[in-house]
Automatic annotation (TrEMBL), chains A, B:
<keyword id="KW-0812">Transmembrane</keyword>
<feature type="transmembrane region" description="Helical">
    <location>
        <begin position="81"/>
        <end position="105"/>
    </location>
</feature>
<dbReference type="Pfam" id="PF04535">
    <property type="entry name" value="CASP_dom"/>
</dbReference>
<feature type="domain" description="Casparian strip membrane protein">
    <location>
        <begin position="36"/>
        <end position="173"/>
    </location>
</feature>
<comment type="similarity">
    <text>Belongs to the Casparian strip membrane proteins (CASP) family.</text>
</comment>
<dbReference type="GO" id="GO:0005886">
    <property type="term" value="C:plasma membrane"/>
</dbReference>
<feature type="region of interest" description="Disordered">
    <location>
        <begin position="1"/>
        <end position="20"/>
    </location>
</feature>
<dbReference type="InterPro" id="IPR006702">
    <property type="entry name" value="CASP_dom"/>
</dbReference>
<protein>
    <recommendedName>
        <fullName>CASP-like protein</fullName>
    </recommendedName>
</protein>
<feature type="transmembrane region" description="Helical">
    <location>
        <begin position="165"/>
        <end position="191"/>
    </location>
</feature>
<keyword id="KW-1003">Cell membrane</keyword>
<keyword id="KW-0472">Membrane</keyword>
<keyword id="KW-1133">Transmembrane helix</keyword>
<comment type="subunit">
    <text>Homodimer and heterodimers.</text>
</comment>
<feature type="transmembrane region" description="Helical">
    <location>
        <begin position="40"/>
        <end position="61"/>
    </location>
</feature>
Amino acid sequence: MRSGQEPNRNGGLMTPSPRPRIQSQFQSTVSVQKNRRFNILILVFRFAAFCFSLASAMFMFTNSRGGSGSPQWYNFDAFRFVAIAAAIVALYSLFEIGASVWEISRGATVFPEVVQVWFDFSHDQVFAYMLLSADSAGTALARTLRERDTCTANNAFCVQSDISVALGFAGFMFLGFSSLLSGFRVICFILNGSRFHM
Amino acid sequence: MRSGQEPNRNGGLMTPSPRPRIQSQFQSTVSVQKNRRFNILILVFRFAAFCFSLASAMFMFTNSRGGSGSPQWYNFDAFRFVAIAAAIVALYSLFEIGASVWEISRGATVFPEVVQVWFDFSHDQVFAYMLLSADSAGTALARTLRERDTCTANNAFCVQSDISVALGFAGFMFLGFSSLLSGFRVICFILNGSRFHM
């Protein structure tokens, strides 16, 4: 930056030489391409988190058998927590997929850059904690249900709950990966003043 | 930095003027003091996390009534998880308290600085997830035990489990605060090349 304003040895102001500009344009192109690849990786993780958490929520929401004596998912606190946490994460992931696609196609973030990187990271963290908490509670409940006669009478209910909780854990894993990447973006932003990581 | 090496207008090399050095010494003193206050804050959070997780582990480990028919904590998976996770966090917090005291008294980290800041942050994150997961599972189990006749026959067992889980959540909260602060130290380290935040 300073070299363009420094006085020349011959007395006048130097005109900026073309070489640094070409180099910086080249670097900028490489940076944009790397950033694009990085964004596509985030998009893949977001999509995986969306699929797994949506599947988890669907499995739990449809987990009610007909008949008055059979167990319903909404009668168990932990299963309600699993269903609602998975639904919230699915909605959030859908929003983040939209934001990612927007960023890849237009090259700009939806919110101002500083808001966007901190928004992504903080929400990833909070929702990852929430989803893990819900699925841990769901696992503990599912295990105690196996010891009771609920599962011998209604095995399909227990199997469907187990699948829902397992899908939730898979969603948590991909949300965790997204959180690592968005944390990396926060650090890049703090370091360089932009989300580009070069 | 550059000003010390720049040629003087009179021709010779300037000797470094005393004012910047005094200013930087002053800034360094302020920085050391701020860092000390920051470390004391971390130490307080670590100590709180240690106390709560140790109490949680002790409450769970001693949660067995005499008599052959009464419930034991080690017969429940989720309660074993609560006890072991709390014990691990208590040990880790104890180590971190030692590291903090060392740093405050000697002004240097136990490991090399780059290892220390990343070690603290990563372990805070992993153990916070683990403790939350354990206590969520413990909560779900404690709630289902209330519905069964376990708690009417052995109310003390259930109350002690509830207290242990609640103490575990308090420990998680303080571990989360420590994690925020150690994350801040990581960012400072990346920004400045030192854990000092100025």
